[in-house]
Structure formats: C-alpha cells, structure tokens
Amino acid sequence: MILDRERALNQHQYSHLISCLHDQDAPVGAIGRGAHHSIFRSVQWHTLSGEESKRGRLHDFAVIWDEDHDERIIGVIERLHLAGLLWPVVFIGERKGNMTVLLAHGAGPIELDEPGYVEAVGAIVQDVDHDVWDVRFGTFHRDPANDGRLTNAAGIIADDEPVVVAYLQSIDILWQLGERGRTTFPGLAA
Length: 190
Hints:
By secondary structure, this protein is an alpha/beta fold.
C-alpha cells in the first residue's frame, strides 16, 4: 500500500483533463524506434455508437510514444477531449510529425473515407506549438490473434505490422482499453 502511494506521488502529471493510469517514460524493449506507452483515462459523454449520452462513462486509451516522448501530443489529446472527439480513440501516437489515431473497431457513425470526424481531428493538428502534423487513421479490434485482420495499425509504430498489432493487442489484454462499461456518472443538473 505504501509503495502504491509513493508511486502515485512520483508519477508525472501530464494533464488536468485526463488521468494517467500507467506511464512508461522511456523506451522499453526493442519494438520500433524506442516505442513505449502510457495509459490514460477520461470521462466521455458519447456512447460507442456516437450518440450523446446523459451519463458520462470512463474511457481508457493508450498513448504510443516513440523515442523522443513528444509530450505535445497531450495538448492535442486535451483539444480532442474538449471538442468531444476523443470518445472512439483507443490508441493515439505521434511519430515524425505524424499523429496516428486508432479508433475502436465498429465505433460509429464514423466513416474514415468521408468528411466530418476526420476533418475535425485534422483541424486540431494544424497548429501544434507552431508545427503542423499530418494525421492518419486506423482501427483497433479486440482480437488477440488478429485472425480477422480487422486491426489496421496505420503506421503508429515503425515496425512490421504483425509485430505492431501484437504489441497493441498485448497492451489491450492488460488494460481492456475503450469504454469502461461498469462505471457511469450522471449528468450535471442544468
């Protein structure tokens, strides 16, 4: 119990809008160019079908860092959160001036080949501390063997796709990313 308290006190705080549940602050292992991850939690006011909800729900997602651990991604995530665009995101990362967003497979009504959500996210990354990032989208499907080939990692990590998908699946196995269905919060009285 004391170790958990000490760890919580020493954990880096990235944001006042989202909570960091787990933080790898440096590369671990030999995937990509120093890939590592952190797990964050937010409260979202949309269902997985995209409809607005009167009850907030806990939503866990992972940030995939590369070797430079560019914390500017947190400001982008905060802007996505405030714009109501974070609800379908399962993984998000920045690498070489590209932001990659992996959405929960089947989260709808998002169509990645049509304007709307894609354009709204793209507008947010047009000014990242006087830098312009390109944005790529993929999908994540909870299928540890990826038998259906429904996960599209969209280059979130510079490594072979099967290795990247296995890494993402292992993170999801540990954290069960996405909607935390067992916990909801009532809306605020108007």
